């Protein structure tokens, strides 16, 4: 046992070391795979964002190129562009035409805005304050037309953006650089509107050096950042160009809010730079899951599996040891079985002696003084034959009992083919089989005279039934010889009477009676079922050795 314990301990130690090594390797691999997957996902996202921004900037360039020699004060300036801009992209918030008007064009511009159906044609500041047109000496940028037209957007035409810090800076740069320019993030439509970015493309007539105006497109920031993917591995934030350390983030409803990146907060997993409107924008990516923690959890699972396998191996060795102990016990049981077999052989010898004693009694009472030698010889042969038949049946069943119908075989019962047998084919015990076999022979051997009266038709019935519920079941046997009377039936011998009235009932622990009716001879036997049915030797031993329970 000490050696076995040492082996199990060594296996457990080796298994623990291997499990720890496997967990360490899995931790490193999971961490590396998560980082690679996150980096690839970020690269794909940044590429999609750049493609999206390039398409929007291209739309502004195409729209500005569709203007040939526009009249800045012409109403419905976007009319030729409506079909083109909707066919190209439709996710903009507002597309507008901002004309660069000279002081002498302002009055005509007001008339054009009014003629286009806008409710407030007056030239005013970006915050709807009226402008004194007489004091204007330089060209100003005025919103003349827009798309789509709604109750919210119809009030915007007529506004001048020269004093708007965000839009004025955007238009000035587009006019100077003569290319598409994007603004800083700014609320769209109203002060508390969705945060977005405006891209302005200058419209320069042929032969001119200065733009006649600008075509602008406004986009919500959330759609440009592609932030509404709940299944992504990361969240996206845009570095706020207006504020150092500021970030713009969008929630799952697309609402953009500003926040300050904490110095002690988590650093972004990666940053990517995209170009839009002649400026660079920096995207910060924050992983939604902790790769290190996930790798640790996976490593813990692998270690647990390793420890479980180690425990199974150690348990297997313990099981082998237990089997060895069980084998030793089985050997002891086998020895006990051999002793039991010896006892069974002794019991068999005892039964053989009992059979011999029964045969001796049969011979003595059959060949009593003064009996007819021919009748005695037939009865002796028949009785011994009946005993031999039941012993053969018991030997075939290893003395575990025989089927009751098997006792009515023609080789053991006279005229068995003329006896109508009915009843459940129950197995009776060895002791009951010996008594019933002799009983059936005695009943059949003394019915010769009655048989001669009926020819070949059965006139003897043997039936049995079982009544009651376990363990109070009762066995009922009835033998009836029809067309028989005291005058025609051969009288029973002394041995037969003793067997019918005393030996068989006592062997089965029951009672018996015989009598004549007007048309038949009847023999009835009643006994407890537990003394009739077959039980194995162990069942009999357990039943005999079980303590008697007191009656309640």
From TrEMBL:
GO biological process: signal transduction
Keyword match Cell membrane: no
CC terms in the record's Gene Ontology section: membrane
Gene Ontology MF annotations: ATP binding; protein histidine kinase activity
The EC number(s) this enzyme carries: 2.7.13.3
PROSITE patterns: CHASE
UniProt keywords, alphabetically: ATP-binding, Kinase, Membrane, Nucleotide-binding, Phosphoprotein, Transferase, Transmembrane, Transmembrane helix
Gene3D superfamilies linked to this entry: CHASE domain
Record-annotated CHASE domain positions: 142-225
Enzyme type, top EC level: transferase
Gene source species: Bradyrhizobium cajani
Pfam families found in the cross-reference section: CHASE, HWE_HK
Protein name, as recorded: histidine kinase
Chief location bin: membrane
Annotated TM spans: 299-322
Origin superkingdom: Bacteria
Record field: catalytic activity: ATP + protein L-histidine = ADP + protein N-phospho-L-histidine
Location of this chain's protein in the cell: Membrane
